[in-house]
């Protein structure tokens, strides 16, 4: 039966992650963006939220919780409300663990999930995006071919979070570019694999606190045990739906942050004898923001709900992500606009959110639920 | 728990409504759009008989107010079925003989005795209509500017003034129906003086002087009504006669919190008609809409179609939420206005885009697409324009009164 209310547990999770976002993440966001560094203590606090360990089986030291995309969206929204770069740092290891949880063989789960029950942050990641203007997840240029018993990976990836600190990277490559998602497989590549090089840290417009890297695979040889899911492979379409929902949820959080900030500023800032919020031009911008935050959230929840029901969420997650990409960019742009000249200075957070918002639209596979 | 599934019993009802939309409304859609002031008598009889079988919605509403447990998701149900009927034809939907907005006003502001007296007629007899008359030549959005007066004379009130844009007013006056008229008992006190009065069909002094020629929803009659010393009994004033700061005006304004999601649902029905048509058309032309590819590689057509699709989804989710909130007893003034503002604008754009995408075919009156664009536009205007709804949203989110933000 149609219901728009979160469960009691989800509300508690939302409130506690939300409090953490405001109290711990937000105050650190500007410095982290300026320096490109996240304080080690904050990284460990992010780890203690448990977003990676929750789904790790108990026998490996995790909480063994069932995954819920809706709950994941709720958490991602609150983390995004705090800071999206810090959020994606915290969520990055799931890019590695979640596909292995879904598709890994027993041996792969045993070998690669065990470290994540630790009580310190374990960097891990996946490599999806490629440095081409016409990058398309349905036409990956990174390829895999058989070589005797082994496999050879070739190609270039970019925007790989935390690659330099990760023991292993889940690399997506295509065995058949004509097969779209069906031709895509995942390969667990160790950092020291021959033929794998990791570039210098990338310099991005936003998400600057998140360390991202390019990687190059030059005839990178891996054994058959590296292929995620063995002969069965992976459900790459579902993995893509999960990343879209996560990124969109992060975006809803950041959009809400921008809306809240602009609204409160407009109620204080005076011009022509009254708070600027009492002028229709500003009031209507804020009203539009409020509507679009809510609309964006509902679209994300619908796609997440379909994932939780085991349905094909391709269309709904794709539409939701694209909608949020546009809405969060517009909302953050309007937030800068409402603050006027002050919005342009790297002191208020709104310019940071605008730079991040543009990244949210471009970046794929940066987080998952 | 978050859930977007319509329960099976409702899905069944929706299928029935769809049969009405597709089998009864669509075949006569073009005809009554072209013949604007001709009464679709057969349609009236068909819908009246179907209503009698199902039990009128006002009946159900009355039962619900006696026993809320009987129909716990009433507003959501209404929103879902309204979408389906307006997918058929929004003008015919509004023209359907029932208690309409007049009935909604009676339900919102009337005493139990008045509800029985004015609404029981919708259970039997010939097709009849209820209507509500608010707008006057001098105002639409600024409803505190009512100039129609209701002067107490002995045991009667005497109404004088002019109302325009009264949906269903002509049919209400010509059938065994009634019109709820907003008139002021005391102009000097402003809003608290504005009260809802029931004027029965055939009351001397009430004259429908005109039915408008409109851009769309042409099957629905939009009446201009003159009240010239129109005398009604004092017990036709809905609710309480005292001029209080609360009551009357506020009661009827509260009906808008319930009707806004329904008007949003009307828009969504029209928008979906256009979307479904374009989707089917593209399929027939073997034009693919490729979900999943890099958005930058979408053709302009795919991008436009997906934008139509997602805007409609967004509008629908906001509308369902507003209706659900009413059903679970949450105050939904903000969310109802969000839904109406979003749906009105989105569906205006969706239907205009549908005409655009179909090129020369979209412009022809051989297809219904151009009609849907004309039908859609009203939803951005009546029952609170987009701008008024944005103003309401802005006031709520900022905590401002109408004096502080206008």
What does this entry look like structurally?
The complex is a heterodimer of chains A (369) and B (406). Helices cover 49% and strands 15% of the residues of chain A. In chain A, a hairpin with a 2-residue loop joins strand 2 (143-147) and strand 3 (150-161). In chain A, strands 2-3-7-6 form a four-stranded antiparallel beta sheet, with no helix packed on it. Chain A has a three-stranded mixed beta sheet with strand order 1-4-5. Chain A has a two-stranded antiparallel sheet with strand order 8-9. With 369 residues, chain A is an alpha+beta fold. Chain A is built from ten helices and nine strands. The longest helix of chain A is centred in the C-terminal third of the chain and has 33 residues, at 236-268. Chain A has three domains: 8-117, Acyl-CoA dehydrogenase/oxidase, N-terminal domain (Butyryl-Coa Dehydrogenase, subunit A, domain 1, Orthogonal Bundle); 125-232, Butyryl-CoA Dehydrogenase, subunit A, domain 2 (Beta Barrel); 236-362, Butyryl-CoA Dehydrogenase, subunit A, domain 3, CATH 1.20.140. Chain B has 14 helices and seven strands. Chain B has helices at 8-34, 41-54, 57-66, 74-88, 90-95, 100-109, 112-119, 169-174, 249-284, 300-327, 333-357, 359-363, 369-377, 386-398; strands at residues 130-133, 149-153, 156-167, 178-184, 194-200, 206-211, 222-233. Chain B has 406 residues and is an alpha+beta fold. Mean pLDDT of chain B is 92; it is low at 64-70. Chain B folds into two domains: 1-74 and 88-244, Butyryl-CoA Dehydrogenase, subunit A, domain 2 (Beta Barrel); 249-398, Butyryl-CoA Dehydrogenase, subunit A, domain 3. Chain B has a four-stranded antiparallel beta sheet with strand order 2-3-7-6. The interface between A and B is large, with 49 and 42 residues.
